[in-house]
Amino acid sequence: MAGFDFFRNFDKMAMALWTFRCYVSPGGRDMIDDWLGRQSDEVQAAMAVAVEYLVQRPRNEWRRPEFDLLSGKMREIGEIRFKVDKQYRILGSFGPSRSDFTLLVGASKKGSNYDPKNALKTALDRLKQTRSDGRLSHVCDF
Question: Cα(27)–Cα(13) distance, rounded to whole angstroms?
Fold first, then answer.
């Protein structure tokens, strides 16, 4: 009964202030889903907790330890932050709509070094791509 499912999940839907979008390659692959699929169950669970926390918070409550905006030439990029066996970051950006946050690339981080090493450049490149072609992101399936 689809109607019943709507009401059963209404409290969860009513609390969501944000829609998380995932970067999709020009070939149609969800690159965030691909990255998550290569991570342990513990990393996947920690990311789910961070996203669930942020989705319920107004923008002014997005701050450390769960989130941080980068600076300088990277100021349009923010990172969802969580730790399991090491530090992990999901780099993304606000938009395309006012209540969207688009996930661009997943990485681990030690000090100022990301793995993959090109994660920051990849995030900027994907941000430009999603702004010029809206088909390169979709609502995340998690």
Answer: 31
